Amino acid sequence: xxxxxxxxxxxxxxxxxxxxxxxxxxxxxxxxxxxxxxxxxxxxxxxxxxxxxxxxxxxxxxxxxxxxxxxxxxxxxxxxxxxxxxxxxxxxxxxxxxxxxxxxxxxxxxxxxxxxxxxxxxxxxxxxxxxxxxxxxxxxxxxxxxxxxxxxxxxxxxxxxxxxxxxxxxxxxxxxxxxxxxxxxxxxxxxxxxxxxxxxxxxxxxxxxxxxxxxxxxxxxxxxxxxxxxxxxxxxxxxxxxxxxxxxxxxxxxxxxxxxxxxxxxxxxxxxxxxxxxxxxxxxxxxxxxxxxxxxxxxxxxxxxxxxxxxxxxxxxxxxxxxxxxxxxxxxxxxxxxxxxxxxxxxxxxxxxxxxxxxxxxxxxxxxxxxxxxxxxxxxxxxxxxxxxxxxxxxxxxxxxxxxxxxxxxxxxxxxxxxxxxxxxxxxxxxxxxxxxxxxxxxxxxxxxxxxxxxxxxxxxxxxxxxxxxxxxxxxxxxxxxxxxxxxxxxxxxxxxxxxxxxxxxxxxxxxxxxxxxxxxxxxxxxxxxxxxxxxxxxxxxxxxxxxxxxxxxxxxxxxxxxxxxxxxxxxxxxxxxxxxxxxxxxxxxxxxxxx
Length: 596
Fold this sequence. Notes:
This is Conjugative transfer system coupling protein TraD. This protein is of the alpha/beta class. It has 24 helices and 17 strands. Helix 21 links the parallel strand 10 and strand 11.
């Protein structure tokens, strides 16, 4: 038994054009014969119209197939959009991903068929010089929209240098601004275009005051951000800075000791009525907590010990005027029994710790504080101005409450170490704000959009927590990187790198050269069945002249498992072209317009 199977070769020559021309010629000849020979006129006209109909039918088929080939040849041009264009494209509950189409098994089969036939053989060698732009011609493109709720699952953008990650950021950031949502952009490179486009969109909406700029290389234009301003529990501040200490596990003795020292200093500052900032923490960790401890003890005695100045005089004489030792002894021998303070206990233990051992244990902490308090960061990250100053002082909570658009350039190209530290502590501050919103309620239904370019340079444990649990606080994270190996290199642990990947439900891939990254993207997408046609000819002539000649012809359609998106094809994407795998299983092939 033979089963008849329809098989269409999508990239064969357009044979329908000669067929249409043949039928058109037949129609003309029929009319000519009817006019010159004794043929019934009605029959001749009817036959001519029938031929003309077949010619039209074949022309329509030929046109459709030719257009498919033309689409594949015409996708190298760039497209541009203005902020006004972007505003007009907004739809309620949706966001715009540029021009493209849904990538299904239909387009994938066409792709596999063309690869099998040979792209250069089909279109010519000149056709392949700009990358696989023919992929975008496998279907008719249109404006591509996706459900806004998908962004709640966070988004990962992967692509090599110069292929369009920043331009895609422009597109997504601009739409978040138009939706009147708070936007925070962390950009290690300090891309001028990214900052400029965000500012332009604010101005196009008539809201230039929404844009807030921060860049260490331009302190005169930068706002001041206090990354230690937002907290509910005092321990949060120590955790925020300790997260920056280099550590393989996050729980080694140096990190633990650094956290304890930070927490003791923070408690002392709060006990004395001072607001902790990075400059003060550096001062008391590098120089010792002597002055802070003395002030904290004096305030504690004043509030909890009656007639303490008279009672302590004997201790002062005993220690020959060394006020601090006298105060500590008075606290331990007298005050601790009736008015013990855990905060003072910790600060005293830090003061009494062997100084040489202390310096060794905080050897990783002091450089971090030095980075974050060196000029011009002294004022930018630890603002403490007199009344009447004209500098804009803000923090992440204020940015979010006022629906601001904050651009944070880290200047990592000039100083990667300091830039990474700035980005990490600001992300840790954002995590604290998310925890506050999660614990005490969200005062606004508007989501918070956080965009982190070159995320591997600033990602840390608090950022992973923000990806993991930030959705409940209304955070929508969009992070960009070049390869997945960047996260493993930064975090020092492949398992933590996989945590980052697992917490992003939407993955947008531009051109990627790294084989492991290509494989990760392709492996997360279901396979398809690609059909191929095999044709076999055979004949047999025996040496005996009296034997009959035999011949055979066979067509066989086979189906083989194939990738919806082959890993290697990701290295062939032209700049600004992408594949997007969205939460819920929808796959998009698109290209990014440039915001101007």
